[in-house]
């Protein structure tokens, strides 16, 4: 039995393209901090335990890719400094961070429970990701989702 996916090229794969931007541990740790409200270089560095140059490189890349923007702030009596805030493109990564959190809580968490929760601001309930199709059906089992070629799909082999 062969899968239909074998008939389609992976050239132009948007998963691969996304991983070129955010596909390493340090990048997700930076986004975790920024999305939880930690915005200053020294604070991010302390919480991620990242070397200065690695963090500087990740922040520059995330700014260049449009996921973060720099914002200048000045504390009284000090020189102006930069903090990092998510752009709309960066906020669109929130569901990916939440998915990693849910997976980590389920498979990598300790017996005492999750160290962080994401809750709905209005009611305080935990946020859960629920896949939903365009017509509004909630999908409760991953096996209910099947891949199909999209409008940009190209055959893997030409039929000459």
By secondary-structure content and strand pairing, the structural class works out as: mainly alpha
The tally of beta strands, per DSSP, is 2
Q: What general outline do the C-alpha atoms trace? A: globular
Low-pLDDT sequence parts: none
What is the structure about, briefly put?
With 160 residues, the chain is mainly alpha-helical. 37% of the residues lie in helices and 8% in strands.
Provide structural commentary.
The protein is mostly helical and 160 residues long. It has 6 helices and 2 strands. It has helices spanning 14-22, 25-35, 41-48, 52-64, 88-91, 94-107; strands at residues 68-73, 81-86. A two-stranded antiparallel ribbon has the order 1-2. The longest helix is centred in the middle third of the chain and has 14 residues, at 94-107.
Q: What order do the helices and strands come in, and which of them pair?
A:
Blueprint: H1 14-22, H2 25-35, H3 41-48, H4 52-64, E1 68-73, E2 81-86, H5 88-91, H6 94-107
Antiparallel strand pairs: 1-2
Keyword list:
160 residues; mainly alpha; two-stranded antiparallel sheet; 37% helix; 8% strand; globular
């Amino acid at each position: 039995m062969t899968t239909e996916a074998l008939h389609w090229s992976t050239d132009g794969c948007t998963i691969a393209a996304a991983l070129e931007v955010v596909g390493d541990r340090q990048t997700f740790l930076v986004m975790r901090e920024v999305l939880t409200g930690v915005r200053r270089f020294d604070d991010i560095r302390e919480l991620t335990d990242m070397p200065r140059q690695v963090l500087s490189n990740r922040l520059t890349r995330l700014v260049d890719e449009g996921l973060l923007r720099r914002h200048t702030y000045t504390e009284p009596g000090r020189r102006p400094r930069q903090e990092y805030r998510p752009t709309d493109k960066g906020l669109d990564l929130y569901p990916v961070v939440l998915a990693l959190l849910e997976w980590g809580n389920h498979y990598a968490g300790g017996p005492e429970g999750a160290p962080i929760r994401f809750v709905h601001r209005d009611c305080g309930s935990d946020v859960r990701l629920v896949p939903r199709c365009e017509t509004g059906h909630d999908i409760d089992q991953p096996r209910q989702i099947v891949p199909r070629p999209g409008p940009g799909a190209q055959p893997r082999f030409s039929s000459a």
